[in-house]
Amino acid sequence: MGLAIRLKKRVEGFLLDVEWDMNNELLVLFGHSGSGKSMTLQLIAGLADPDEGCICFNKKMLFDDFLKINLPPQRRSVGYVFQDRVLFPHMTARENIGYGLKIGNKKERDKKIDEMFKLLYLEGLENKYPGQISGGEKQRVTLARALIGRPEVLLLDEPFSALDNALRIEMRDLLRDIKYRFNVPIVLVSHDMLEAYSIADKIVLYSQGRVAHVGTPQEIFSNPLSSEVDLYMALNFPLLLSRF
Amino acid sequence: MDNSILFSLRLSFQVALLATFFVVMVGIVVAYLLARKDFKGKEVADMLFTLPLVLPPTVTGYYLIILFGRNGFIGSYIYRWTEWSIMFTWYGAVLASFVVSLPLMIKITRAAFESIDKSLIHASYTLGHSELMTAMKVILPISKKGIIAGTVLSFARALGEFGATLMVAGNIPGKTNTMPITIYSLANSGEWSKANIMVIFFTALSGLFLYIANKFSKRML
What we know:
The complex is a heterodimer of chains A (244) and B (221).
Chain A: E1 3-11, E2 14-22, E3 26-30, H1 37-45, E4 52-57, E5 60-64, E6 69-70, E7 78-81, H2 93-98, H3 106-119, H4 135-147, E8 153-157, H5 165-182, E9 186-190, H6 193-199, E10 202-207, E11 210-215, H7 217-222, H8 227-236, H9 238-243
Parallel strand pairs in A: 3-9, 3-10, 7-8, 8-9
Antiparallel strand pairs in A: 1-2, 1-4, 4-5, 5-6, 10-11
Chain B: H1 3-36, H2 42-54, H3 57-68, H4 75-82, H5 90-114, H6 118-126, H7 131-142, H8 144-159, H9 163-169, H10 179-188, H11 192-220
Helix pairs in contact in B: 1-5, 1-8, 2-5, 3-5, 3-9, 5-8, 5-9, 6-7, 8-11, 10-11
């Protein structure tokens, strides 16, 4: 068992009320903006507290309102890649990635950082500051920083939304590679249908703070049961729709 | 320049440096709490710390006498235990300068802290770093320019402090007469040529401080 969540949170008239679980697979949280996808990630990471529910990871409780368990974000072992690439502007690429490592002597740290540079094709950028590198490179540094501490779950909040199409395809390949190497649950928030379709093992479709549908991409997109999916297809993907 | 003017000059810098040291220490902590924490009475605390910025300095000085005077709320205890009072010593001038310039530091540093993208702080937390570590490694370095601008302006304000200093430390030649107070005395006794030198010096120095502070606060944006 990987990650299982049951969450309820009310914020200014909006109610998030969701329940889903996943194994060590790539799960795409899919839905319109404002459907509660990003909020779900923040709750899993401990950056906000649910009103009720539980977040359970490999039988380890991260949050449970009944048992009064609420681990701080520092102790949740979550790799989080934010929507807007947030690298520390005052640190070089190397220092940014190294910041994800809490312990270890210098030799050990250097070895791990070098590994990440190789894995995410970042060689040559070691001493560059975030302002000096491209969007795709920034996103790879952010990924490296989130992964270097070997998180037990990886959360990605629309990480590729600011990249152009060619880069997105490259990043999707990279993500598959990461899934294979790290073997952890990966939750990707997206409102890009092609992205969800091409990369997900499992899709959880959000609609107005609730889970509208759960299934594989094929199940969801080739057999749309929900009006939400229909609408999405019609609006965003007329070509794919015409195939069905 | 005669010795008494040199003494004033040295004393002013001594007072302003020490006051600025405390202003930076206290100001950063207070600004951090006001910017990042929600607690009961936060607005009242903000108001109390900001008051000396708008109060006439003599009123601030009056409050300091009530608090730290030999019979004051805090001063009486200090006097009972140590037989020493901060009144009419150069430490009194430091206290007055500290209280008057602290709001500048708090305002500017708080604005710098509040302008930091919250996601950066969240990123640091999810990477396993404590709040203290995040403050030291992320928040303070990113706010560096705001902190420098605040420090320079506070120093300039401390150096020019007059009203509250006069109330708390008095005008004792060779002991508590800082530059602004000496200028006042010189003007009073009609020693214009001496006063002119100090006034020009002060004006040039303040201009330089403003230039530095502007340079940093502009780059901060």
